[in-house]
Amino acid sequence: MAHDWTEKYRPDSLSKIIGNPKAVSELTAWANSWNRGIPEKRAVVLSGSPGIGKTSAAVALANDMGWDIIEMNASDQRTGDAIKSVALAGAGSNAFTDDGQYLSTKEGRRKLIVLDEADNLFGREDRGALPAISELIKSTKQPVMLIVNDLYALSRKSAVIKTETLQITFMRPRASEIVKALERIADAENVSVEKDALIKMAGNSGGDMRAAVRNLESLALGRNAITNDDAGKLSDRIVRKDIYDLMSSIFREKDAMKARRMLMDVDETPDHIMTWVDENLPFEFRDKGDLMRGYERLARADVFLGRVGRRQYFGFWSYASDMMSAGVSVSKRSAAVSHERFRFPLYLMKMSRSKAVRTLKRGVCSKLSSLLHTSTGRISSDVIPMLKMMLRNDPELAAAVAADASLETEEIAFLLDAKVDSKAVKDAVAKNPGHAAAPSHDAAGDTAVKGVRKESAKDAPAKGAGPQKSLFQF
Questions:
Q1: Angle at CA of residue 24, ends 10 and 48, nearest 5°
Q2: pLDDT digit string, tens, across residues 431-455
Q3: Is the pTM of this model over 0.85?
């Protein structure tokens, strides 16, 4: 079976990557620096929106340099152990091909270690991943590439990402560049495409080259010519309106019915859209009367959404949608129009950025509740705040808590309010090197219930060293 066109026409050289000459130049310079030995920045981070060529750039770079690729993406298990066994093991000096041929780096043969979607590390499925990635970046003898959509989501969790890597940003290609690429693909497939159709496909892709190629492939299936009308039908069928277009229609156009219709084309729930309207309303409606009327309509929408939750009657969604779109739109009577960029809801931003922290906190509360025989709610509200202050001032206690509760590296970092690769976290781990492999509280039986760790003679404190701290000596 033939590959889909996104794979068939994936660029095999960096010179064929469209729309990012600066990024390509920086990436080439970094790759060439490996020809002179191990460079200062052993890892590179490619960031940017999905579908703009980051993964293609990784494959193209490997082809240009004659490197093999070791790749881990979001579909793989990416725990700390998995990364150590796959990526760290592959980061040694020498390599073997798939057929067993020995490759020496002295001969210029290297492996490119790629961690795709490296910013999507959530929950226990990816436990231990960040410390392993930090270790990989600092110790690798092979080039490492991290591919992310949101660099901030990854770098805020680890200082190593900020200081020890080269960050390269990929931008969305212009529509004219996408048109030229689509023309080359159509010529290769012997498909005649009208110029206006190509322009429409490129415009509707929103800078996503992958989406544009798939649109072209779907239209070319079973035919050898594509007209502008064909592209228009595809647009009506699969292209959804953007939330920013909806905000512009509500706040900056005087067509309430258009705003109402556009809301139906946005693939978001009414409560999500209301969060956007609420965030931008005070910045778009500067007139006090407009602002008062706008909030009255938005409050009425909120009442209807509340009735949906209480009565489970989703017919109220239509009333809420009308109020937050057409209702807010007709509230504006002044002629002033804002030209500022629409703001992403601060509430959604905070919830997104705190998702990993909330997951960590639930894990810590669960372990401590089993150890202290109390509820997770009590741990969260009463124990955690006091415990954090105690641990920051007592490194030995931090190590003891980590051992008694079998905390993992990320969980220790959470209690210390520190990054996973900080000195405080490393010290706590170093004093209890076997903490990650410690048995769970359920499996530890009486040992966990009594709060006493089984120790070998080797682990016992030295004579005269004083009493060893325990979690139950608070």
A1: 75
A2: 765 544 333 333 333 333 333 343 4
A3: no
